C-alpha cells in the first residue's frame, strides 16, 4: 500500500482532527438538505435487530443463535411488584447484522488511525481517546442521495462497484452531488453472510469517486467486497485515510421504494446515534426525510 | 387511583395497540414539521454520556464511579496486530443520566401496561412482547415546540408545573400546538440527583393539558417530581394510560439557545433510536432541525 | 401442597437461618471425612464448560450456539503491547450445562424462601439479602458417598427414583450414612436436554429419605424429573423446605470409575465455590478426595 | 532481561506443556497431603467479594463504587410469580480484590507465554487456546505450607521478601518442603491499594527459592511489590518462565489463626475453581484442610 497514491485527508484539517469529512457539511450543504424536505414523510434506513436473551435464568436448553450476537438482553428483576420494567442491553456495535456508524478509531492502517495518530494513543483499555464516536454526538444532518446500483434487483456476488457504476446510478437519480452531501449506496444485498461467502463491494475507483465528489458520509447495504481486496477501499481508505464515516449494514429497501414512489432520489438525511463518547462506533437508525 | 377520573387512551385504538399517541402524527402534523425546516441548522437534545470502564483487566484499584452506571464499556482484544478496534457497550437504558425513550411496557399500573395488557403477558424473561420499543423502529418525525418554563434560569426544586404554566410557556413561544405535535419542556434542571433530593416536575393538570392538546411525544429535562405524587403524572398517567412516549432526561440548553438566536420555538423533531426490538426503552439522540 | 405433610426444617434452626442442613456437618462428620482420605487421589465432579464468545468484534457471522449460554467471555484489550492478557466472564449460574450450588434464595415456595422469609425480603434488585450463596463462603468439607443407581449404565428416562432405590445403591456402596454426610447420586445422565425431553429424577420418597438420613448436601447428575411432578422434590422440598443445598448438573462418571478402581464409594467431599456474596447460587467444582 | 540467567522451565516438559509446575504434584506429594488431614477442620483462603449491582433499573443515582469492579451482578426477571430467582454475574477475574488463579496465558514475556508459545497463538479474540485455566479443571490437591513472614503483624510497605526470609518462615513453621508442595505466603497485607501506593512483595531471590524447592503453586496475600522491579519476580518469572500458577490476593488471616491454634503450619490444600476452559485465570476459593 503506497500512501502517496491513495487519496488521503491526513493533515488536511490538522493533525488531531476528529471530524474528517463531516467538516464538508457547510451552510450550503445544510440548505440543500432543507430544500429536500417537502412533507416530512420519512423512512428508516436501519436493519431491525432482535436481541438474543443473555439469560432466561431457567431451563436447560435455549434457542440456537448465531454468536456473537449483535445485541443481547437481560430483563431486570425490579422487585416482586415492580414499579417499572427495565432491561439491560449488551451491544457489539460492529456486528454485521447491525446498522452502525464507524468512528475513525475503528480502523487503523499501518498502526495509525486518521489523521495519523498511533493506534495505541487513540484507543486505550478504558476507551477511545482520539477518533471516537464523539464526532457524531451532535447528530449529522445533511443532504443525502440514493445511488441505486441495481433498481429492483441485487448485484451479482462478484461485482466490484467502480466509479462508472456510481456515475450511472447518479444519472439515474436525476440529480447531482455537491461537497458535503451523503450517499446511500444500494446493491440489493444482505451482506451479513458467512465469511467464506462472496459479497459485492466497492473498489478503489469508487472510493476515489466519493473523495472527488466531497461525500461527507457513506451509507450502504454493501461495503467492502469479499473476498477482500487490500487495502479495503471503504474501511482502510475512505474511513482510515479520508476520515469519511461509514454507516455499515444499512437496509435501503424501504428507501428505494419511497424514492420510486416520490420520483426523487434525494432527501434530508439525519444520523442521530446515542450520544455516547469514547466508543469505536455506535448503532444508528438513519432517517431519510422527504 | 380511579381510572374514570384520569385521562386514558386504553381502548381508543384497540386492545392491542402499541403506538399510542404516535398515532396522532398524521399527514398534517408531518406537513407542519416540514414547514419548520428552513436552513437545516440542528441541535442535539441529548445528554452526553461517558461510559464507565467495565474492566481494565489490570491493576488493583480503578476510579470511583456512581453505580449502576448508564453505559459500561469493554474494549475488545482483536489480536496482537488488530485489523480493527472494537468495543462492547452495556446499556442500562433507564438510568437517569441517559436521554432515552420509554416504551409503554416500561410502566405498569395496577399490573397492566397500555392499553390494558397484563404486565406478565407484555414482559417476559426473554424480552418484551407487547408495548416494546418496536414502536420507535421507523423513527419519529413530527413538529416540536419548546416550552421553556423559565428562560435562562431554572425552576425552584419544589415547583409543580401546572397546565397554566404550560399555557404561559406556549404563549412565550409565540405559537400554537396541534394534535400530533411534540413538546420539549425545559425546567433548567439536571434531574440526575440523589433520590432524596427534591426535583420539580409536572403535576396532573399539566398531563391533562398534554392530552387535551393531542401531544404525541413528551421530552423534558424535567419529568415527574420528587418527592413523588402518585399516580406519577408522566410515567403512570401519560405513558401508562395515554400511551404517550416519554423522552426522559433530555438536555435542552442548546435548544433553548438556538431558539433564542433564531427567534422561534418550533422545529422539526427527529427521534431515531437504534432499531432494537423487544426492549423496554431505548437510548435516543433527539434532533431538532430548524 | 400441604406444608404439614411435607418434610420441613423451617424454624428448626431459627427464623433467619441461612445455613440449613449445612448445620448437620458437625465435628463427627468432619472426622468421618478425614478418615476417608488415604492417598489424596482426587477427582472433579464438575462438567467442563467452554465459554461462548460474547464478541469477536469482527466479521459478519459467528458460530451457532445454544443461547442463553452458561458462560460467555470477552477477551479484553490491554494495549498494543499488553503486559498481561485478561478476559471478562459472564456467568448465568443456573444454566443446566453448569455444575453449580443452589442457594436457598433460588427457590421460593408460596412466595417464601427457607426458612419462611418472604421472597421480596430475601431477593432485591441489588442482590440477595437472605439465603444467598454466602452460606458457602467458607467452603464445605464433609464425608461424601456415591449412590450409583445404575453402575456402568443410565436410568430409563421415565424413572422416578424412590427411597428404596437409594437404599439399594447405599447397600451396593457397602457403607452407611450418618447425619452431615453428603450424597452424590448418579443416574448416568446428561440432563441438559431440551425442556420437552423426559429425564429421570427423584421422587418425594427419595427426598424424605435424604431428610431421614440427615444428608447435608445433594449432588447429582440427575435432579428433578421431567415432566415435572409438583412440588419439585429436590428444588421445592429439599432446597426450599429442608434448606438442603443442591449441586445441580454434576458429572459423576470419573467419580464412579475411581470408586470402582479403589473399591470404595465414600470419600472426602470439598465444595469451594468462589467467595461471592449476595448471589442466588454459584458455580462449583466439587472435589472428591480419596 | 537475559533468559539464561533467570530460572526457567521452558522446554522442561515439552514445547506445548500447559501444566507447568503442577506436574511436580506426584503420588508422594499427594500422600504427604493426605497425611496432613486429621479432623477435616478447614478454612477458606479467599477474600470475600460483594458484587456491585450492574443495574437497579431504576432511580437516578446509585452508590459510589470503585470501578472496574471485580464482580458485577444483575438479578434476573423470571416472571411476575417466579418459579425461581436467578442472577447473572460479570467477573473481571484479575481484579486485585479477587482471590484468583492465574493461568500461564495471563502473562507474556517478550510476547511469548510459557513455555515459549507466541502470545498471538495462545490468546485469540474468542478465548485462550494455549496455557488457559484448563490446567486447573481437575482441581489441585497437594500439601500446603503456610510461610508466615510476620506472625500477627504486617510487613513494612517497602519490604522486598528474599530467600532468607522464606527460610526463616519455613523454620518457624517447623517443617520442610518437598517438590510438589504448595506455599501460602503471608505478609499481613491487603494489597488492593491504589497503584501509586507502595506494597511489599517477593524479590527474585525468593522466586529462585520457590524454584529450588519445587514449589507447585504459590498463594499469597502479597505478590509482586510496588513500585515494581522488572522482571516482576512472581508474574514474569515464576508464572511466565517457571509455569508456576499463582493465587493472587489470598486472605491468609483465618489460616494463620488456625495454624496457631492447631500448632502446625502444614495442611492439605484444595484448589477447585469453576471448570471453565479457555480463560486467562479463574476465581478460586482455596481450602486448607487440617
Q: How large is the radius of gyration of chain A?
A: 20 Å
Secondary structure: helix percent of chain A? 10-25%
CATH C-level name of the largest domain in chain A = Alpha Beta
Sketch the topology of chain A as an H/E string, one letter per element.
HEEEEEEEEHEEEEHEEHEHEHEEE
Distance between the termini of chain A: 41 Å
What is the CATH architecture annotation of the largest domain in chain A?
A: 3-Layer(bba) Sandwich
> Could you state the CATH homologous superfamily of the largest domain in chain A?
Putative cyclase
Number of strands of chain A: 19
Mean pLDDT of chain A: 94
Any low-confidence stretches of chain A, pLDDT <50, length ≥5? none
Assembly of the depicted chains: homotetramer
Work out the strand percent of chain A.
15-25%
Q: Could you name the CATH topology of the largest domain in chain A?
A: Glucose Oxidase, domain 1
Structural class of chain A: alpha/beta
Number of helices of chain A: 6
User: How many structural domains in the coordinates of chain A?
Assistant: 2
Strand order, largest beta sheet of chain A: 1-19-17-11-13-15-16-6-18
**Shape of chain A from CA axes?**
globular
How is the topology of this model organized?
4 copies of one chain form a homotetramer.
Chain A: H1 27-35, E1 42-44, E2 52-53, E3 63-67, E4 71-75, E5 87-92, E6 100-102, E7 112-113, E8 117-118, H2 119-122, E9 123-124, E10 127-128, E11 140-148, E12 160-161, H3 163-173, E13 182-186, E14 201-202, H4 204-212, E15 217-220, H5 233-239, E16 246-248, H6 253-262, E17 266-271, E18 281-283, E19 287-289
Parallel strand pairs in A: 2-4, 11-13, 12-14, 13-15, 15-16
Antiparallel strand pairs in A: 1-19, 4-5, 6-16, 6-18, 7-8, 9-10, 11-17, 17-19
Helix pairs in contact in A: 3-4, 4-5
Amino acid at each position: 500500500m503506497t500512501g502517496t497514491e491513495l487519496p488521503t485527508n491526513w493533515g488536511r484539517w490538522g493533525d488531531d482532527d476528529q471530524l474528517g469529512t463531516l467538516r464538508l457539511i457547510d451552510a450550503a450543504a445544510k440548505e440543500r438538505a432543507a430544500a429536500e424536505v417537502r412533507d416530512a414523510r420519512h423512512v428508516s434506513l436501519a436493519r431491525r435487530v432482535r436481541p438474543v436473551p443473555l439469560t432466561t435464568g431457567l431451563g436447560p436448553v435455549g434457542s440456537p443463535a448465531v454468536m456473537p450476537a449483535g445485541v443481547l438482553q437481560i430483563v431486570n428483576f425490579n422487585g416482586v411488584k415492580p414499579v417499572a420494567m427495565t432491561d439491560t442491553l449488551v451491544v457489539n456495535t460492529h456486528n454485521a447484522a447491525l446498522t452502525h456508524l464507524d468512528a475513525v478509531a475503528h480502523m487503523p492502517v499501518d498502526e495509525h488511525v486518521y489523521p495519523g495518530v498511533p493506534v495505541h494513543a487513540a484507543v486505550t483499555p478504558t476507551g477511545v481517546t482520539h477518533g471516537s464516536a464523539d464526532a457524531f454526538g451532535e447528530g449529522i444532518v445533511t443532504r443525502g442521495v440514493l445511488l441505486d446500483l441495481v433498481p429492483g434487483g441485487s448485484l451479482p456476488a462478484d461485482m466490484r462497484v467502480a466509479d462508472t457504476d456510481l456515475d450511472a446510478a447518479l444519472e439515474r437519480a436525476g440529480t447531482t452531488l455537491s461537497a458535503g452531501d451523503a450517499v446511500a449506496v444500494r446493491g440489493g444485498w444482505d451482506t451479513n453472510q458467512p465469511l467464506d461467502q462472496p459479497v459485492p463491494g466497492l473498489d478503489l475507483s469508487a472510493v476515489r469517486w466519493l473523495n472527488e465528489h466531497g461525500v461527507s458520509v457513506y451509507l450502504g447495504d454493501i461495503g467492502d467486497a469479499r473476498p477482500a481486496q487490500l487495502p479495503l477501499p471503504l474501511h482502510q481508505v475512505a474511513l482510515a485515510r479520508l476520515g469519511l464515516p461509514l454507516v455499515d449494514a444499512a437496509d435501503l429497501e424501504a428507501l428505494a421504494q419511497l424514492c420510486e414512489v416520490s420520483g426523487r432520489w434525494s432527501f434530508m438525511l439525519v444520523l442521530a446515534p446515542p450520544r455516547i463518547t469514547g466508543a469505536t462506533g455506535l448503532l444508528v437508525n438513519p432517517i431519510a426525510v422527504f
